[in-house]
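Input/output pair, single chain:
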Amino acid sequence: MANVNLVPANTPFGYNVGINYESWEVGRTGYSITADLNQITQNFSLIRTYHDSLGPTPVMDGTQQQVITYVVGTSNVELVMGTNESAVVQGGYGAPWAAGLMNSSTYTDQWVQMLISSFGSVANVKAHLRGILLGNELDMNGPPPSDPSFSSYQGWINASFSNLKASMAGAGLGDIPISASIANYGNTVANATTSYIQSNWSSSWNNNSPYVMYDQYTQSTSLGPMSSTNFAPVSTYFQSLANTLGGSVDVYVGETGYSTVYNTPTVNNQSTVYTQIFSWLNGMESANNGKTVPLFLFDAFDQPAAAAPNSSFGIYAESSTFQPAGLKAGITLPSWINTPISALTTAAATKAVGLAQSGNLGVIETLVSAGLKELNADSGTVMNLVLTALNTAPDYNGSRIADHTSARVTAALADQGLATPGNILDLIVQAAVVSPGAFASVGAGLDLSGSSTGGPGYHAVSNLGQANDLLLARAVSALLQGQTYFHTPDVLNVAAGDVAPVAQSLLFQPMLASDTAVQVTVGGVGYSLTGKAGDAHAWSAQFAQQALQKDFSADLVKMFDQQAQSTVTQMGVAAGSVVSVGIGGASTTTPQGGATTSAGFVDFVSASGTSAVHVAQAVAVAETVGAANDQTAIVRMRQGGAQDEHVTFYKVDDYSGSIGGLKPGDAGYDAASDARAYVTGNGSTMLTSASFGGYSEGTLLHVNAGDLVAMKLSSGGHTFYAFANANEVVDGAHVGHLWNYGMNTWGWEDLYGGGDHDYNDLVVQLDFTSASGSHLLV
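Output:
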């Protein structure tokens, strides 16, 4: 299996590399925190500290307050603030172990108010505090396994985390991440803490991307602990840990470095190790176009009162009175360390866009493979630049761009026994709505209000974007086969006032311009849906459908991974029920409903045309060529997630997913779905996707006309169904894992509990017509 990329898709930090700073004296008699920080900020804008309050009543540590005051008064400086161990666990050093201060929610409420007071305002906290770490190396600084309190320790950690999370949210600081640092992953506390943080991570933190700080130094030798000058095992450790966690938690480097205790008069071992560290980081920065694994060097200054080798990890030299005197001999920092990530990535993207627009088409793929798939969540500027390149590069689709009524469309229809109808333009317009991937580039297409928008690649006669004639021919032939040979019930009877013609399980997918209330009424009963807007670059139906081409760039897929949609809600709708939707307290309309309802979905659109709720079925109807039985269906898959994905297709009895009287979630439904599974072209009942970013294809055999085809995903040891009632329950509700991207196209969310809500971990499309005839559309 390929390595998980250590460079995370999201980071709360504006800089790649920070420095650990011990604000306590620790033998540095006469030191000055202001002088220290003046020195540090010449090279670093990201600083991590270790102290908060020691007493039962929260009062900010005096040295930490000096750091906070400095940071608030200095532009572009970010702080990651650790707490003392007493926040999580008290005792030790001969005293009995006991629960820490933050095991009390009253204390954490007071602690947060102390934090706000120390920074001067909530706004200052948000502007400068990038994260909070509970204690330090929790797996090393609590009761050992032999102590009777060890069985309680994990509960203390969990309670401290949950209490602080709630108190921060209650004070308007719910978007500042809380995590912890770990010394050695693999022990009970390290593993359980990592798992708890992942499971209880707030969706408001770091674009819903959990992280934990892991510390690691070079190996011990006969010289002493952490004395080896070979950094390779350290980098291997971090990569192996990322692979073990499989992307469920991002690996951040909380501490690494080297002590000058092991220098000799003639050999600078610290310089040797730091040269390797920076070589490792430079490679990542270059390969990922300005981003590295988030990493904090240890330490800024020596700590003379600490035992060797911990006494001499500082990278800055000092005078005899412990005043900063520049970097130690042999330490040369990379030039980009103090440059914001956004500036690094935007500069590279701007250069690449210029090349793409001048005709260098390959640079688009080069651009993203160089690392723009690993962007800061706030780097929307970079994504917009890439979209500009995609939309304006000359002939990006190459020979596939053709006139709407291309020879391929005509030939495909004829090969399937159909004449080109007189209303071909109407079919093309309908195809633009149900299969928007057939038109223009990633950023162009019909808007939600039903009117078309101009821009590069638009066709002056039909007012549609230039066509990808392969995708267009597939869409037109599927629509015409359905209209000619089938009488499939619409998802909703739009003409009759959005009435459900049959009982069905429907996906309700908010697509909102901003956070707002969403109300759905089904059969006279009202429901409130999650009204949180998705990310600006969450996958559209157009992007998802275009990604289902073999030659679509895998790196583009990776680049736009982890862009969250809103949360899907799935509901059963009885036959004859009227469905209505309100957005922001106002009613909606279905301007494109007449074109899409036969394809299994309807958009309820706000008056402004900028927000909608996409209502779709969770099953595909096998509208085969000429309504023939025993046909082969093509399955196209694009993997946007890092886990191994396996998908099974099975026949259901109705649009609610029932099998022989069993409903999704009933006892015995799993076995019933397996018994109904279609055989695939490889002789099994399961298709396995490609690796992260990759494209794959498979077939389903013996598909009959009118079959209702459902699917389920196996990923990470869990099985998820297209019907939420068969999935896990979180906060009292079944979790939906499926998102509709237009005609017979869906995307899966592959993490238990709902994951990051990007619904692109595996995008699947079913095609019931292209395998017929001479295979012109395969």
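The chain is about 25% helix and 20% strand. The two ends are 29 Å apart (CA to CA).
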